[in-house]
Amino acid sequence: MSDADPPRPIPGARLHFSLDPSVAHLNHGSFGAVPIGVQRAQQRLRDEMDANPVRFFAVGLDERIAHVRRHLAAFLGAEPESAALVPNASSGATIALRSLDLRPGDEIVTTNHGYGAVTLAVADACTYTGAISRVVELPAAPEDSDVVAALEAAVSDRTRLVIVDEITSPTARRFPVGRIVAALRGSGAAVLVDGAHAPGICAQPVAEIGADFWVGNLHKWAYAPRPTALLAVAPRWRDRVRPAIVSWHHPDGYPAKVEWQGTLDYTPWLAAPAGLYTLRALGLDAVRAHNADLATYGQHVIADALGIDAADLPHPTAEPMPMRVVPLPPGIAETYEETVQLRRRISDELATEVAINPWPGGGLLRISAQVYNRAEEYVRLGDGLARLLASEAVH
Description:
Layout lengths: L23 E2 L2 H4 L4 H16 L1 H6 L2 H16 L6 E4 L2 H11 L7 E5 L4 H14 L2 E5 L7 H11 L4 E7 L11 H8 L5 E5 L18 E5 L11 E5 L1 H4 L17 H4 L7 H16 L1 H22 L17 E5 L8 H15 L1 E2 L1 E3 L6 E5 L6 H20 L1
Helix pairs in contact: 2-11, 4-11, 5-6, 7-8, 12-14
């Protein structure tokens, strides 16, 4: 298939989803979409919980959570004893930051490709501990070797933590996290890999990376109900992990003290294996290939509609990626407030959901591709966006 041709749809795949057919959902990367079969599996668990709440929470729930934890860890290539279920990647990052016992003058190194909520968590940790945040500035489409070199150069003897994204949210890049962890080994700095998008995109994303902390969402590309994520912690940190909430299982240590949060709704976690079943039933390799090819097609047709030369698009990473970015014209969506306004206009006027992130010199439109999407949705977005941006320029 060339970039000019869309992939063939996977037969029947769209029927697995209950999305509003009047809206083009081109932003799977933000919140995912739960297949109907997984919704029903979760509803059965909710019915069980509400039929006898005391029995649901007090009899066997620990064992059921542990079974799911082992299942998800195997899918991700994580050691079962390293794993703990958490709501999302942001909560996992917060746990890692709490576990470091940061002190005044300690440094946390991140990149300008990081997720906004994690950036806020770092800022909060610095406010309360006196630690210092250092941001490594990278271009929108850096080479792998440049990412590794820049992070190596940023680490000092005061660096306590380096946070790097496995797949970046604003720029849809896959960073060489294995090489980064290897390069920083021996530096004294811990490494947190934010793998929010990795489950379902990357084959066993935790395996052989060797990070001190890794966290990834299964409610994006692995079809789990929201909120479901897995935190993997290296052995030397497990006794030092400080959960966000202290509960009855705190004396039991890791992972129970992280997972048990009182009367939390645990049904998303318990239903998460149904999401993996759906993914495997559709064909994991087929889904990955379809989504990557469709995202590439969508990126090119939208860029063509906006008059952007294909050579000026961020070149793709080597691995299949179901998200792509299209740079917007200079002066468009350069601030967070402007991205919100433009995204809402696209939603309201074009009946299309996308992600837009601020970036110096012009915001980045991020599109996703999933098995429920069709080629014509990207064509319509490109045509409509060209008209919308023309009206923006007039005003």
